Amino acid sequence: MAEITLHQPPRPNPPSVATKTKDEAKVKRARKNLTYAEKWELIKKIDQGMTKRGLATLYRINKSTVRGIYQKKDTIKSHMDIAPTASAAHNAKRSGNRVLVKTE
């Protein structure tokens, strides 16, 4: 009896990022760190009626980031109250002592 085999054409290799042209390669968005002052301004604009989608476009961040910032508005408000000066709150990107923040 003759054995029947099916011939399958070889699979093409998937293109790697190195073989793609610059236009074809996916360009990642640069990471954007917002200060507490910027986050507080964002929260105030949401409370004034601006849409989260509009703010995401304005600040060049993802919509889910805007929602996350708004959900943490109480924490951000407490950080703004703790800051010794307005310039310290303006320049701070995160709290320095997480244990101290948890206990307060």
What value does the Rg take, in angstroms?
25 Å
Unreliable runs, pLDDT <50, ≥5 residues?
99-104
What general outline do the C-alpha atoms trace? Answer: elongated
Largest sheet: none
Q: What's the total helix number?
A: 6
% residues in beta strands: under 5%
Helix and strand sequence: HHHHHH
**Which class best fits the helix and strand makeup?**
mainly alpha
- What is the C-level CATH assignment of the domain at 32-103? Mainly Alpha
CATH topology group of the domain at 32-103: Arc Repressor Mutant, subunit A
What is the averaged pLDDT score? 76
Which CATH architecture of the domain at 32-103 is right?
A: Orthogonal Bundle
Helical percentage? 40-55%
> Could you give the distance between the termini?
84 Å
Count of DSSP E strands?
0
